[in-house]
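Q: Second attempt. The first request was missing the SMILES, so the protein and 2-oxoglutaric acid are both included now.
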Amino acid sequence: MTGNMFTSCEPAPPCIPVIPGLTYQPDTLTTVLQTELLTWIDSQPWQTSLKRRVQHYGWRYDYHTRRVTQDMKLGPIPDPIMWWCDHLAVQGFFDRPPDQVIVNEYLPGQGIAAHVDCELCFGETIVSLSLGSPVLMDFTEQRNGRKSSIDLEPGSLLALADHARYQWKHGISARLTDRTPAGRRPRARRVSVTFRQVVV
Ligand SMILES: O=C(O)CCC(=O)C(=O)O
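A: Got both inputs this time. The predicted holo structure:
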């Protein structure tokens, strides 16, 4: 559902939802940086307790209680991820380097339920980097069900703050293809890296 009345396609596609606090930055990672980060991620152990595989850094997040507590602190964030934590702070997305990172792997047919990131656990800004396959991320405004979506390209950065962080849910439908202006696009493997500041 790109290009609907709640998206802006100016000055040129991709069309970005007009949601206060949403920042979309294509081409944040060069192809070389994407490959380097993905290669490092794939050298690390994955947790397999969800339908999709995940890695947690800095702090563990409990998907059942939907909480982070003091006892969930993990070791130091490894250098290849910490470099991005520092970079995102230098770039002004955070006032200090984020200290919690979740890597999500989506195979075709996998998604993530529509949600607002835990308000009691995490700070005011959430930033995700996209690697691998492009995917449509859906947004739903909580008070009226208004919907929009964004085509997350590999190498892009998505920041959610303000309304985009608190008033809208975001999620990825579990399906094999996405409808785009160019037609149905099959999904391939996508990996995202999401940065947060723990506030517990
Ligand atoms: O895969 C993404 O880009 C978003 C991940 C996400 O929403 C989350 O980890 O809560």
